[in-house]
Amino acid sequence: LVQTDNAGYAILNTDIPLDADNYHVLRLTT
Length: 30
Description:
Blueprint: E1 3-4, E2 9-11, E3 25-27
Antiparallel strand pairs: 1-2, 2-3
C-alpha cells in the first residue's frame, strides 16, 4: 500500500526513517 506524506509525495520506501534527505519519494501528478 502506497502512503502519502503531508507534502503530497508517495512514500516508496517505508523501511527507512522519513527524512527528506534519504527517503525516496515520487511526486504525485494528480
